[in-house]
Give the backbone structure.
Amino acid sequence: MNKKNAFEDLLVLDLTRYMPGGYATQIFADWGATVIKVEDTGQGDFCRHDSPTKHGISYYSTAICRNKKSISLNMKDPDAKECFLKLAEKADVIIESFRPGVTARLGIDYETVRKINPDIVYASISAFGKDDPRSQKAWHDFAMIASTGYLDLQDDNAFPLPLSDYASAMVAGQALLAALLNREVTGEGAYIDVAMFNSFLWWQSIIDSRWHFNGGVHKRADLEYPSVGYNVYETSDGAKLMFAMIEEKFWVPFSEEIGLPELRDDCRKRRWQVPESFEKMEAYVKSKTLAEWKEWLTTREYSITPILTKDEAIPQIVKDMPDMLAYVDFPNVGTVLQTNIPHRISSLPTDIADFKEASLLGEDTAAVLKDIGVSEEKIAEMAKAGAVCLGVPVDFDYPDYNPIAPRA
């Protein structure tokens, strides 16, 4: 008889919205835990409505809510709150991202839950932590990035990825796993206070240490990129190559092979230090087409890579690494692209083919409430009173929606 893995008996209640909580609980859902999104009876998790959509289903929820169930409760209703607390009594993990004080007002905070379930591992995600008054204000990822000094190093550019959201999600996931491991040894539950600002600040420990060593100065021009050997250069036909050589054992032979030995000591130097070396590299790279560079690189091991568009990269990754990126068919939304979690643990395998589509808002409400002893009559009564939502059916006539104007 095969043994269950450690996650298959875990019950996780996810009250969060958007990335930080959803990304943190994705690993639990993918490893077999029962992860239930606890959503309100209005919009549910806001990520359900972000465009682009197919059949009314968002790309966002398709990406981070797979393998998760959904129940829809109006926590201001006494009956609905009682149902939640019955669930909380059985849960191993609760994670929420309300502003500090909201769960206490609703009567579902850590102190309340701990009285009925001392083993609970309860995590709260907020901007600066539960005791910082700044967490009572509206903060978003971009503002968080700006407040750490990081944005200044990026020339005030926006990012395709919400960096502080990802940092917070990873910190929350690590903290939950650590608290569960500690519970196995001590028998004690835990409260986890995840501050998004602190999480992203941790990601920058090397940058801030460098700022200190550099006499309290760290500007964009101080970064390794762009340097002579760590830079983007253009080929003769307009393609772009990423040169990522920062080790002498690669750079010195390269500079000699291309007939520019005078660059041997300039690998890590920036444009303000050796502008003429940049000009020489730019001219040399532009002396070949992309095809010629690719041919030249087939017999060499220099770290030089074409910069691919998503149109180029995704098909290649799907072909080469179908265990990480693959198309699957979900019943409601259709064919979607799914990215596997990268953790390669022999006792916790994940297979994209086994992923289940995210439950629709409230789709599992009735089944979950029955499991905790609520009668069908009571469930119907609560639904009629607006205390719960029993599921919002997908609308197959809902038009696909993408607000971005067509591009040439």
Observations:
- The first strand starts at residue 11 and ends at 14.
- The chain has 16 helices and 14 strands.
- The longest helix spans residues 163-186.
- The chain has a mean pLDDT of 90.
